[in-house]
Amino acid sequence: MADLVLLPGFMCDRDLWADMVPDLEALGTIHHGNVYEDDTLEGMARRVLDVAPERFVLIGFSMGGFVARVLTLMAPERVTGVAFVASSARGYSDEETARRKAAYRPGDRPPRAAGAVSAAMGLHPDREKDLVLLDRLRGMQHRLGPEVRKRQAALVRRDGYADLERIACPALVIACRQDRLRSFAETERMAKHLPHARFEVIEDCGHMAPLERPRELARLLAGWIRREER
């Protein structure tokens, strides 16, 4: 049985993984990484490491994948395997970083319409009006609040494809075919730079795979973890 450390995406809390918990608990003990109190990837990685088990499998979704890359290189002796779900290693330009920071100044709240659009874009086009999924996405955003949004929006994301080549542990990269927030090419490119990577694709799925296709995502993770444990 493995210890699993889960790293969520931008403005997502542990409800992101709720539908996957029964399947993931069959693999081992679940630990939820704290990515809410820091405004750098390195700070998030150190905070997660401080309370993580001695050795663990790391699973990063979207923004959590950026943290997972930094963390794995920070403590390679502790990460037995790393999975990147709907993630990327593409660096943000100075303009993109400045725009994200400007959009979430201290005390600001994002316009209600903007929040609705971003939530819908995270889903497959056929599910962008699914009220249950939209309510879950908005619920996570509401619970985390504007201060967490400000910190996560301020993250500097430098190009990390070359860094991936230094990750020696087994890796799994999962792309979502209809992802409108993270390009398929960006995620696929991660697998090409990881020395020991397996690449999988979830069809008929937007960005939010843990909500849209939880059983299929859990199945891919379980198959990979069990294969690497043999």
Describe the structure concisely for a colleague.
The chain is an alpha/beta fold. The chain has helices at 21-25, 41-51, 63-74, 94-103, 112-121, 131-153, 161-164, 184-193, 209-212, 214-229; strands spanning 2-7, 28-32, 56-61, 79-85, 171-176, 197-202.
Describe this structure in words.
The longest helix has 23 residues, at 131-153. The protein has a single domain (2-92, 153-229), classed as Alpha/Beta hydrolase fold, catalytic domain (Rossmann fold), CATH 3.40.50. It has helices at residues 21-25, 41-51, 63-74, 94-103, 112-121, 131-153, 161-164, 184-193, 209-212, 214-229; strands spanning 2-7, 28-32, 56-61, 79-85, 171-176, 197-202. It contains ten helices and six strands, in the order E-H-E-H-E-H-E-H-H-H-H-E-H-E-H-H. Helix 2 (41-51) packs across helix 3 (63-74). It is of the alpha/beta class. The radius of gyration is 16 Å and the shape is globular. Residues 105-115 have low confidence and may be disordered. The chain has a six-stranded parallel beta sheet, with helices on both faces. Helix content is 46%, strand content 16%.
Topology:
Layout: E1 2-7, H1 21-25, E2 28-32, H2 41-51, E3 56-61, H3 63-74, E4 79-85, H4 94-103, H5 112-121, H6 131-153, H7 161-164, E5 171-176, H8 184-193, E6 197-202, H9 209-212, H10 214-229
Parallel strand pairs: 1-2, 1-3, 3-4, 4-5, 5-6
Helix pairs in contact: 2-3
